[in-house]
Amino acid sequence: SSPFRSAAVLSDSYSAEASELADIEWDNLGFGFIPTDYMYMMKCTQGGNFSKGELQRFGNIELSPSSGVLNYGQGLFEGLKAYRKEDGNVLLFRPEENALRMRLGAERMCMLSPTVEQFVEAVKETVLANKRWVPPPGKGSLYIRPLLMGSGAVLGLAPAPEYTFLIFVSPVGNYFKEGVAPINLIVEHELHRATPGGTGGVKTIGNYAAVLKAQSAAKAKGYSDVLYLDCVNKKYLEEVSSCNIFMVKGNVISTPAIKGTILPGITRKSIIDVARSQGFQVEERLVPVDELLDADEVFCTGTAVVVSPVGSVTYKGKRVSYGEDGFGTVSQQLYSVLTRLQMGLIEDKMNWTVEL
Ligand code: COI
Predict the structure, then answer these.
(1) Ligand 1 center from residue 145 Cα (angstroms)
(2) What pTM was computed for the model?
(3) Could you tell me where the DSSP H helices lie in 210-312?
(4) If you ran DSSP here, which 8-state letter would residue 182 be given?
(5) Residue 312's closest CA among 177, 215, 178, 185?
(6) What's the gap in Å between 169 CA and the centre of ligand 1?
(7) CA quadruple 2, 7, 10, 12: dihedral sign
(8) Helix pair angle (7-19, 116-129), 10° resolution
(9) From CA 102, how far away is CA 83, in angstroms rounded?
């Protein structure tokens, strides 16, 4: 029999099982992988379209040793979160933005990708099938990880003849081991994350492998993560290994402009809109690293990190500190508005949330 079961068939069996909370310790979730019940799979061959995908029990997948993703890195991922509301319903945050970003990335990587509707529908089905893993309100969120990979076999360098779209989920809490305490960054001035004309602006898996060396070295020295500079001038801020960066000075909030080497974060874009709605002036521009010296506050944004305050930045041996005990007032305000919106605690005037 087929390892795949249709969502309709599954829905009867999982609805009972998914209605009660999973039996795990919900306090102090970090950002480690916890296996859940179901994953979503959908395949497409070159020249065709993605056909109706299916939920299946979470588990290992089969892949040709000659697949495009394993040999030539033809892969993309996304990240989004689902929060449980007090009434038990679940909220997704801007899932169509992730769908669109995956389509742009697929174009850059010569991959076929699901339509926005297919992506969003698949996310909803996967979250509902795993509903018992969505943490109780205030305990965290369900991290949703869509993957797109060249699963077809190739030997010579070429786009793979088949693509697999897969979604798995895992309950998460804070990303950094510091919890909600400020993180300490070190500016990397030799290794680079991205180059003009490269793939830094899309969420391809190789971008993340490329930062592991600098990140590991930084962690070994006690830093939380690495802040990258542009590779041409070695002067302008780009991003942190897994998140975007913002700087606050008075009423002005600055963040590096999106210009092909920076990942267009959905939390980044949302925070810009939230900040403007709160009366701040937001500038997307070239931000010289020297400006960090007299910033009032520095913070990072990302789906995984949400809004994380930066307690210090070290650049060429010089350490600059910003309130090392907690959030600065501006980052606290932005964090609070964004997360209350994501959790359904304030009215969603932006129409960003999708209720399940
Ligand atoms: C996210 O924030 O969702 C990401 O994709 C970053 C990842 C390295 C955890």
Answers:
(1) 9
(2) 0.93
(3) 212-220, 266-277
(4) P
(5) 185
(6) 13
(7) negative
(8) 40
(9) 22
203 is catalytic: yes
Query: 329-342 and 266-277 are packed helices; what angle lies between their axes, rounded to 10 degrees?
Result: 110
Tokens 């080497």 belong to residue: 261
Nearest to 263 by CA among 30, 72, 97: 97
**How far is CA 95 from each of CA 144, 206, 246, 267, 351, rounded to the nearest angstrom?**
10, 23, 23, 12, 12
81, 124, 131, 203: the catalytic one is 203
Q: Which residue has the tokens 């869509």?
A: 146
Residue 122's pLDDT is 97
Length of the chain: 356
Show the low-confidence residues of the chain (pLDDT under 50). 1-9, 12
Q: Ligand 1 test: best mutation among 78, 145, 266, 303, most atoms within 8 Å of CB?
A: 303
Q: Please say whether the beta carbons of 307 and 297 come within 8 A.
A: no
Cα-Cα-Cα-Cα dihedral sign, residues 198, 201, 202, 203:
positive
SS3 for 195?
Answer: coil
Radius of gyration of the chain (CA): 20
Index of the ligand 1 atom closest to the CA of residue 208: 8
Closest Cα partner for 292 from 354, 222, 238, 231? 238
* Cβ contact 182:326 at 8 Å: yes
State whether residue 18 is helix, strand or coil.
Answer: helix
For residue 29, report the distance from its CA to the centre of ligand 1, in Å. 16
Q: Does the beta carbon of 303 lie inside 6 Å of ligand 1?
A: yes
What pLDDT, on the 0 to 100 scale, is given for residue 179? Answer: 73
Q: What's residue 181's pLDDT? A: 83
User: What's CA 174's distance to the chain center, in Å?
Assistant: 13
Most ligand 1 atoms within 8 A of CB, residue of 242, 244, 342 to mutate: 242
CA dihedral 276, 289, 192, 176 (to 10 degrees): -60
Give the distance (Å) from ligand 1 centre to CA of residue 2: 33
**Tokens found for residue 315:** 């650049």
Ligand 1 centre distance from Cα of residue 13 (Å): 31
The answer, yes or no, to whether any atom of ligand 1 lies below 6 A from the CB of 207, is no
ipTM topping 0.90: yes
Atom 6 (ligand 1) nearest CA: 242
